[in-house]
Amino acid sequence: MTTLAYHLVDRAFYAGITRVTPTAFARQMDYLAANGFTTCLPSDASRFSGQGRKAVCITFDDSYECVFTHAFPVLAERGFCGAVFVVADYVGKTNGWDVRLSRPIRHMSWAQLKQLAAAGWEIGSHSLSHTDLSSAGRLQLMAEVFDSKARLEDRLGRAVQTFSYPFGVFSAQVVEVVREAGYQAAYGMYIPKRLRAPHLQPFNRARRGVYLLDTLPTFARKVNGTSGPLLVTMERLVSFCSRGTVLVKGPKIA
Q1: 239 to each of 47, 53, 93, 141, 146, how far by Cα in Å?
Q2: Distance (Å, rounded) from C-alpha 134 to C-alpha 153?
Q3: pLDDT, tens digit, for every residue of 196-249?
Q4: Distance between CA 153 and CA 253 in Å, rounded?
Q5: Cβ contacts of 22 within 8 Å, gap of 6 or more
Q6: DSSP-derived 3-state class of residue 219
Q7: Global model pTM greater than 0.85
């Protein structure tokens, strides 16, 4: 089963390729519906794996408001659900954690997150402040992982079971803390070979990023697990470039 990772779903220009237009997103969801796919939530992914069912997990990092505006209704119209990973310190704010080369982007509000949860979406944590957890000291790491979970659960009134690593980057130490915090699973993007060890499962789940450059054929290859080395290399390059924020701003030290 494939897990897809989106970020921005918006018409407006943004300097970067981690965006898809609402039109492209609707066409991608139409492809899934027309080809017999169903959606599952990250916390249920283990039930669907290995059963031969045509299921896909649709996730959104950063909880941008445009996902609520554009992606939520598209999924609802097709009977699909998604999962959103929230940067807890930035709920209802703009993306001040990021290096911006164009306009600021607003994150969802608590009211919008509650509406998604009521509609069957899964709400997961994407840390407190979207820092590179692999570079954080243990105290800061614990705050980013534990405190984000506690805040989301307190404000939303439901358990938070899944985590998405900021920038898709993590280490064995980060996995240890995520496990200690009580999450049931965690997601990166491309997973390096050293972090694919069985003892790190299910906290080393990979996802396929969907970007502005994707066509419907490349999307189909990602969903069906038939991507060639060129597509995989492109995804790895995007993931690497996303860490430019860390290089420019430096790691956040608590």
Answers
A1: 28, 29, 24, 21, 25
A2: 24
A3: 999 999 999 999 999 999 999 999 999 998 877 777 776 767 766 655 555 444
A4: 25
A5: 9, 10, 11, 70, 71, 74
A6: helix
A7: yes
